[in-house]
Design brief:
- The structure holds 2 protein chains of 2 kinds.
- Chain A is α+β, with helices and mostly antiparallel strands.
- Chain A has one domain (19-123).
- Helix content of chain A is 33%, strand content 26%.
- Chain A is elongated, with a radius of gyration of 19 Å.
- By secondary structure, chain B is an alpha+beta fold.
- Helix content of chain B is 19%, strand content 28%.
- In chain B, the strands form 6 sheets. In chain B, strands 1, 2, 3, 4, 5, 17 and 20 form a 7-stranded mixed beta sheet that branches. A 5-stranded mixed beta sheet of chain B has the order 6-7-8-9-16, with helices on one face. In chain B, strands 10-13 form a two-stranded parallel ribbon.
- In chain B, helix 3 (56-65) packs across helix 4.
- The longest helix of chain B is centred in the middle third of the chain and has 22 residues, at 153-174.
- Chain B is globular and about 55 Å long.
- The model of chain B is unreliable at 1-41 (pLDDT under 50).
- The chains are: A alpha+beta, B alpha+beta.
- At the A-B interface, strand 1, strand 2, strand 3 and helix 3 of A face strand 6 and helix 5 of B.
């Protein structure tokens, strides 16, 4: 026992970044990469049937301000509200991601996928069209 | 304005006698005499159909047979070019492809993008702003929620909650509750995710829906009216459901109404008795098989649902 009465052991406090924090960071890059034409936004919701079954849902949303604020929800991640990992991608074939590294790799795949590229190209093209 | 110009107008401006609803003949403008007593009514007809295996010619035939203004399709395997070719073949009406980023819903309509524009999309639903040339704007939401196969009932129910939230978020952002939702929910009207306050909050009576909202857990949740409750079982108008399923489970309901129409109270002024119809026949073409179920082999395992809004 330490002399000052502190019973705590040396705590290992690894620098774990939550999925929400990672998504917000990635969302902030989108405006820069599209010259401000598109914005990224992360919406955080507790959803579930009843108090004890709620899960944290993180929706990654693309916003096109010029197109009257048109929004496209690119994907949704779900995890236990208390424990950040594992995190699941919402959907029948959604991946289960065990840690921050796996999440980052998965996000890179989603961002470079043909579907994401198509959506972003289409929204940027429409935003650039003279009204 | 010459009468033929009236009939060519983009929004449905239909010739009707007296106060009867629009006749179900293939093309009212050509089958009714021009000298019949006439008044102009602005009816907007929306059809949702999970088309499955239906050939594009059949989709076009049903669309024209029902004089549809806005066609909302799920599981469409045909490209926009072939759809437009079929829809606009031998027709004085012009259909447009109202494209969006939602991969599971396709919309074709007699309204160009100027009058029907996307406001939000997800993988499972699309929110459109409809600005009819005559009538007040409203939001039209098309949904095709994920299948119940390969997931528990609880998981499936959970998956509907984000969609309900997206609709409320779009309404808040656009400052309206004039919203209509059509689509394949892959859930019946009585299931928790459709009825729950944090779900679609869709109730079976207009009287309840017209109360506007209900506060649950300190949060005010707006109602939808779900007329599909009145289309369940033998004594309903039309077939017992929109989808038939029999896999020998212990609790088997056989008929389901996965294909539904939901209206916010603000849209009920445009809704009348008979505004919803489940389509089983288009002219001489039956969409049902010999047992009366949707003809999954040749056409689709779902019947279309038509909503008429009196704008």
């Amino acid at each position: 026992m330490s002399q000052n009465g502190d019973l705590w052991p040396d705590l290992e406090l690894p620098e774990i970044r939550t999925p929400h924090s990672i998504l917000r960071e990635q969302a902030s890059y989108l405006a820069r990469r599209t010259g401000g034409i598109l914005e990224g936004r992360v919406e955080k919701h507790l959803w579930g049937p009843g108090f004890d079954k709620q899960m944290l849902h993180l929706q990654f949303v693309l916003v096109a301000p010029v197109l009257d604020g048109y929004q496209y929800t690119l994907f949704t991640l779900v995890h236990d509200p208390v424990v950040s990992y594992p995190v699941w991608e919402d959907g029948p074939d959604g991946a289960q991601l065990e840690n921050e590294d796996e999440l980052r790799k998965h996000l890179a795949e989603v961002f470079r996928s043909p579907q994401t590229t198509k959506v972003i190209q289409s929204l940027v093209a429409q935003s650039r069209e003279p009204s | 304005m010459p009468r033929n110009k009236i009939l060519d107008a983009r929004l449905s401006i239909h010739r009707c006698a007296g106060h009867r609803p629009r006749p179900r003949s293939p093309n009212p403008s050509t089958t009714r005499g021009f000298d019949a007593p006439v008044y102009l009514s602005t009816m907007l007809r929306v059809m949702f159909w999970n088309v499955g295996n239906a050939p594009v010619e059949v989709i076009a035939h049903v669309t024209k047979s029902e004089s549809i203004d806005i066609l909302v399709l799920a599981e469409l395997r045909h490209g926009a070019a072939s759809c437009l070719k079929a829809l606009n073949a031998e027709s004085r009406l012009t259909y447009h492809a109202n494209l969006s980023q939602c991969p599971r819903i396709a919309i074709y309509s007699r309204l160009s993008d100027q009058y029907l524009s996307p406001a939000a999309d997800t993988k499972y639903m699309t929110v459109r702003v409809v600005k009819p040339p005559i009538g007040r704007p409203f939001l039209l939401v098309g949904v095709h929620m994920r299948s119940k196969l390969h997931q528990s009932s609880e998981s499936h129910g959970l998956s509907l909650l984000p969609a309900a939230h997206e609709i409320r978020a779009a309404e808040d952002r656009l400052g309206t509750q004039r919203t209509v939702v059509v689509g394949d929910f892959n859930a019946d009207p009585y299931e928790t995710s459709i009825v729950a306050a944090t779900g679609f909050h869709a109730v079976m009576t207009r009287q309840r829906a017209q109360r506007g909202a209900r506060t649950v857990g300190g949060i005010e949740q707006p109602f939808f009216y779900n007329p599909m409750w009145s289309y369940l079982g033998d004594l309903s108008q039309g077939p017992p459901g929109t989808y038939h399923y029999s896999h020998g489970e212990e609790a088997e309901r056989f008929w389901h109404s996965f294909d539904q129409v939901l209206l916010r109270p603000a849209m009920l002024e445009h809704f009348r008795e008979g505004s919803v119809r489940v389509v089983t026949q288009a002219g001489s073409l039956s969409l049902a098989n010999r047992d009366g179920y949707p003809d999954a082999d040749k056409l689709s395992d779902h019947f279309p649902v038509v909503l008429t809004l009196y704008m």
